[in-house]
Amino acid sequence: MLVSSFYYVYENSHVDELVDELAYNEDIFALAVVDSDMKVCGVIIRKDLFDVLGRRFGRELYYKKNVREVMRNIVTMHHNVHIFECAKIIEKDLLSGTQEYYALVDERNCYKGIFSTKDMLIFLSRLTQLDIEHAKRVINRLINKEHLIRTKRLTIAIRTDMVQDIGGDFYHVVSLKNKNRHIVILGDVSGKGIAASMITTLINGMITIYDFDNNDIEGFIKHLNDYIFFTFECEKFVTMAVVIIDEDNELLTMYDFGHSFSYIYRNGSIFKLSLKEINLPIGVQKIENMNFGSIKLEKDDRIIILTDGCLEQRNGDSEEYGINRFKGILLNINSIDTMKIVNSLISDIHSFRKLYPQQDDMTIACIRYS
């Protein structure tokens, strides 16, 4: 998988013979020096050889000598060693950034080829890219970029823009059977990339299989918290907002677990939905009791929930998007279309950052009560 050169030269060959061969084949950048039994004695690096010969009197000193005089020592490994084990062995060289070479040998210690730190880095890079692509496909199947639900009195629109299409934001909407109640869960796993996306996948699976019709939401939250807490031992945590809407009773109930980015637009004004005591993020400690709050819904109320990546996005001048700009844009959106509201907010954040890279996943949910 790693070998980039199978070339070799016998130890009793002369330097001038080797130079003639290298002059005709510019693709040979490294080759092993072997004895008559094909046992590895060392390595010759093309660049090093020509550097030596290019010095003053270099040709006169080395041209008629055996190649052993210009070879370097080389570390040998069994050609069937696992690539990840090999990566551990040469980890220091990989981290140092220097170009080092290694020879592979078989059971009889005979030469099988050469690879370098560059070959290993290219392989690991491709492997990482493949893993990222697989993770993207999984996440895109579980979490749609846009989500829209309409009921008799509710419209729920959600959009998520992940950094490189993979990350730690997640959302889920659960409609309870025959109860006209809906649970909207929106959260953010600490960290980014594949590690965070693995936890979002785990949470998505737990939400999907949990029977919310016959079990209360607090039971689910406790199960989720215990799993994250005991599995990751506080190395990972999840901020999360859980909103339960009872259409028939015009009631909204909210649990906030360190999230704190929930707002209500009512009669031309924006208010923050906050609890007297915010619960700690999921996975920080065991939960005994949890705080929640409830409000009576009014016609045309719009509840906006977003993740911190929206407000903390910076532009080229290191300015944060911030809550004030968010409120200003929301007040100026002349529409009751929830998906249009969500898309307008996300678009404004991207316009604000311009060419500055997106720093974190961004997710916005808009719930309109009609």
Keywords:
34% helix, 11 helices, six-stranded antiparallel beta sheet, 370 residues, alpha+beta, five-stranded antiparallel beta sheet
Give the topology, please:
Blueprint: E1 8-10, H1 15-24, E2 30-34, E3 40-45, H2 46-53, H3 58-62, E4 75-78, H4 83-89, H5 91-96, E5 101-105, E6 111-116, H6 117-142, E7 146-150, E8 154-161, E9 169-175, E10 181-189, H7 193-209, H8 217-232, E11 238-246, E12 251-257, E13 262-266, E14 269-272, E15 293-296, E16 301-306, H9 308-311, H10 322-332, H11 338-353, E17 362-369
Parallel strand pairs: 1-2, 4-5
Antiparallel strand pairs: 2-3, 5-6, 7-8, 8-17, 9-10, 10-11, 11-12, 12-15, 13-14, 13-16, 16-17
Structure commentary:
With 370 residues, the chain is α+β, with helices and mostly antiparallel strands. It has helices spanning 15-24, 46-53, 58-62, 83-89, 91-96, 117-142, 193-209, 217-232, 308-311, 322-332, 338-353, and strands spanning 8-10, 30-34, 40-45, 75-78, 101-105, 111-116, 146-150, 154-161, 169-175, 181-189, 238-246, 251-257, 262-266, 269-272, 293-296, 301-306, 362-369. A 6-stranded antiparallel β-sheet has the order 7-8-17-16-13-14. Strands 9-10-11-12-15 form a 5-stranded antiparallel β-sheet, with helices on one face. The chain has a 3-stranded mixed β-sheet with strand order 1-2-3. Strand 5 (101-105) and strand 6 form a beta hairpin. The two termini are 61 Å apart. 28% of the residues are buried.
